[in-house]
User: What shape does this take?
Amino acid sequence: MTRVAGLEHLTLLGVAPPELVTVSAAAGFGAVGLRVSPATDDERPWPMAPGSAMLAETALRLADTGIAVLDVEAIRLRPWPGPSRLRPTEFTPVLEAAAELGARFVNAICEDPDLSRLSDEFGRLAEEARPYAVRPVIEFMAYRTVRTLDDAVAIAAGSGGGVLIDALHVQRCGVGLDALRSVDPGLVSYVQLCDAPLAAPADQRAEITEARDGRLLPGDGELPLPGLLAALPAGVPAAVEAPAPGTGAHPAEFAARARRALESVLSQAKERPS
Assistant: This one.
């Protein structure tokens, strides 16, 4: 089964979305993940709002290169005062941008400490996203509200959304491969691949830094990536998410390295029978 191979924007977050499309296509990727809205308060946003010149240019480059958009980021599910509800002004522009780019998925960042309320809001997001033909996905992380695979699966299963599998978070949350195999294949959206030491950082702050700035390219660390891929449904899209600050590499050069690294790992993985 042909597998979509993508490059996530966090890998080269300093590269503007249109140029990331060009760089990813030149490196041999078939898909790209794009940051159309910041995932953190201190992140510099790209001007990718609906109607913007940059969004239009990104769409043109997608058409010119034939590359697809696997996912866009990010919708932040944060606590609000008063009754629990998503405010349309917070996520509608992201969904509109995702639809214009033809994205398959939109990544929801889980920041509300109330798991029950967050689950309700993710369900509302999934409902609002249907007319845009984009599927919200939820990701478990050791330092976020959704900390376990079971919680992510329960939230996704009750909403129509999906679960995003990230190799680093699988390791840091202690998720076994048998647990991944037990997940309903229809809930698994795509997998983000990077590498890292098996041992976790000393504390949560260091763990966050590792996730945002300290990942390695697939194959450069100790994570059992071929086994991880074999535990997932056959052909699930795979995207490199491995930020490279401080390497000094040109974006095109680093993207090419990322593509070779991904291909090496994919070639070692035995797909799970359908």
